[in-house]
Recover the amino acids of this structure.
């Protein structure tokens, strides 16, 4: 596979420490003019950006949705081009493969078939079978091979046909991917991206509808991000590939056909920053992935009822962006967490603990966490819907919090 580079001895810190410099109880820092408009009705066609894209290779630190009308924001005169989420992932991957010859892809059917959700379509024809490598149905084997390739200088992207299948490679991800930088005394970097579809689909059955964020969250040395729009899908993909840390990128199976206008110019999102989706005053709603759209659907009802919720897509599941979250808690003093992950030991549980530890004095009410039921996802559509948080539950929870 391409050229093999000697291992480097430079020690790369797995996680960066950050001091929290938070404002006074009623203030927030000024935001930079970098915006993405997301429709608040959970539709599949979010609007385009409402500001000109930044210069090439500019790190976009704050992608903020405005309260502007989505119809006005979707004017065809806006710059950029429209992509579905899976196409945005492919565009980001293709740009990085063109930029860096050490970037390669491996997984089941990623080659000439184009991947189970067509994220790698056309890449094998363009870059060849060695850089887009079809593997046997053996997740533990090709994940271990990808980690080994990362140790020797390549930057592999490992695609799981379904995130649930990567449980077969849990030993490689935990004992090798997460620990080798540490156990080698910094002699090896592990610049690998592990990505694939997950979450509750529509009648995919229990084994194909698992929410595994909390499983991987417990592994030391791993960064985790979850994309929710075509804009941040591309930006997070590019950032993950460039990172010298192992990164797990969670993609929701029901968001692949989400459409959005994204900038023509190159951009990279931060792996450690949340996204302010909707500024507000009364309650902070923290969410990610598909639940972002359930929250925004609920937000329309809440606004009609007189509430002003602040919605944050946390995006970075490990580490949490406690700076953005803390600023919001200091302003609203109430927190609602909405997730698709399991309630017991889920992302929401970890987030609750982090907020309580760091911002307890600013809370005027207990933190409320809405999570999926601790049951295997049923196949029957009506039962499947019951296991996942619905917009009506979010509305009720905010009303109770704000009493």
């Amino acid at each position: 596979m391409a050229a093999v580079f000697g291992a480097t001895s430079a020690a790369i810190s797995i996680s960066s420490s950050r001091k929290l410099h938070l404002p006074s109880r009623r203030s927030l820092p000024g935001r930079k003019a970098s915006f993405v408009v997301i429709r608040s009705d959970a539709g599949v066609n979010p609007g385009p950006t409402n500001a000109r894209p930044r210069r090439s290779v500019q790190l976009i630190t704050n992608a903020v949705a405005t309260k502007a009308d989505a119809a006005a924001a979707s004017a065809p005169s806006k710059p950029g081009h429209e992509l579905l989420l899976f196409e945005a992932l492919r565009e980001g991957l293709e740009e990085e493969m063109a930029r860096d010859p050490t970037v390669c892809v491996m997984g089941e059917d990623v080659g000439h078939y184009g991947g189970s959700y067509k994220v790698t379509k056309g890449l094998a024809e363009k870059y060849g079978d060695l850089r887009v490598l079809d593997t046997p149905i053996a997740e533990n084997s090709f994940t271990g091979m990808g980690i080994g390739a990362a140790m020797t200088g390549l930057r592999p992207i490992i695609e799981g046909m379904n995130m649930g299948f990567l449980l077969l490679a849990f030993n490689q991800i935990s004992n090798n991917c997460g620990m080798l930088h540490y156990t080698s005394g910094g002699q090896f970097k592990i610049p690998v991206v592990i990505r694939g579809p997950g979450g509750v689909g529509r009648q995919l059955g229990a084994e194909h509808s698992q929410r595994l964020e909390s499983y991987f969250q417990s592994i030391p040395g791993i960064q985790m991000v979850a994309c929710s729009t075509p804009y941040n899908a591309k930006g997070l993909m590019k950032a993950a590939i460039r990172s010298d840390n192992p990164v797990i990128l969670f993609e929701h199976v029901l968001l692949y056909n989400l459409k959005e206008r994204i900038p023509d110019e190159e951009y990279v999102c931060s792996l450690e920053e949340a996204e302010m989706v909707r500024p507000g005053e009364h309650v902070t709603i923290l969410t990610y992935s598909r639940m972002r759209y359930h929250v925004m659907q609920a937000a329309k009802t809440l606004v009609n009822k007189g509430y002003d919720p602040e919605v944050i897509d946390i995006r970075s599941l490990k580490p949490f962006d406690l700076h953005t979250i803390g600023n919001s808690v200091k302003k609203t003093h109430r927190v609602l967490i909405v997730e698709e992950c399991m309630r017991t030991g889920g992302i929401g549980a970890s987030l609750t603990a982090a907020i309580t530890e760091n911002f307890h004095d600013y809370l005027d009410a207990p933190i409320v966490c809405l999570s999926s039921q601790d049951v295997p996802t049923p196949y029957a559509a009506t039962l499947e819907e019951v296991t996942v948080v619905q917009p009506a539950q979010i509305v009720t929870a905010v009303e109770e919090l704000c009493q």
Q: What stands out?
A: Confidence is low (pLDDT under 50) at residues 1-76.
